[in-house]
Amino acid sequence: MRIIYEEIIKDIKILFAYPIEIAFWIISPLLWAFPLVFQGKALVGSLQSSAFGALAGTSEYIPYVLVGAIFSTYMFTAVWSMGNSLRNEMFYGTLEHILCSPVRPLYILIGKGLYNSLFSTMFVIIQLTICVLFFGIDLTLAKILPMVFFLALLVIGLYGIGFIAAALTLLLKEASGILHMFEYILFLFTPIRYPVEVHPITRAVSVLIPLTYALIALRGILLGVKFDFMKTSVILLGIDIIIIPLGLYVFNWVERRTKVRGTLAHY
């Protein structure tokens, strides 16, 4: 536990050494959503659409996009932060020392994962507050507990994805191209910007991604869109059970491989 705690404190100190990054993560999801809102208004002529409502379960375009923008923060910080955190250790010249120390790499990754969860939650709270005050999203105390439940299921699954992203960094050293590709896949095949029911392929691929079910549940809670609470919970839990061991296996395999080949800290 001390190792995990110290890893979290270290990452927090690094974050607060660069305050402009804090401002970026607070503002960027909202700025990312505004062009889509303007685009929707230009194409449809208003901020509501019956055709959109038939697919999404709500005709309110702004709240739909804002919820997707805000909660997708968890996915992207998991992929980028856990992947790039090891890349940063390469920059600092400390990666080989850390992974060759008498400490299981799992504890270091858990520390980085918990830091990412705290990091994302802080910004999501700020972003939700802005949306409640200025964009009319209805958030009551009765909605907070089920939201926390689904966010916990999402974050647990994201740890597995983060472990795989960290493994890619160890293996390829500069994995930003693959991480960017993964980011675009998420934008395309999850209901961040639009309902995946718009096309059979997006709908088929989306069922494999945990963010899909988390956004369905969170929009159901916040916007009153109908969804099956029990079914969504079981699916998310099932994905978590599969992806966490898979992520750990991939990371441990890559770590052993790079140590044997002597490329662990190669730049």
Can you tell me about this structure?
Helix 1 (2-16) crosses helix 6 (105-134), helix 4 packs parallel to helix 7 (141-172) and helix 6 packs across helix 7. The chain starts with a helix and ends in a 6-residue tail after the last helix. It has one domain. The model has no long low-confidence stretch (mean pLDDT 79). The chain is built from 11 helices and no strands. The longest helix has 33 residues, at 229-261. It is an all-alpha fold.
- Choose one word for the global shape: globular
> How is the main sheet built?
none
Count every beta strand, where a strand is a DSSP E run of 2 or more residues.
0
Helicity level, as a percent range? Answer: over 70%
Hey, roughly how much beta strand do the residues contain? Answer: under 5%
Poorly predicted runs? none
Q: What's the pLDDT, averaged over the residues?
A: 79
Structural class: mainly alpha
Number of domains: 1
Helix and strand pattern: HHHHHHHHHHH
**Number of helical segments with 4 or more residues:** 11
Q: How far is it from the N-terminal to the C-terminal residue, by CA?
A: 30 Å
| Global Rg | 19 Å
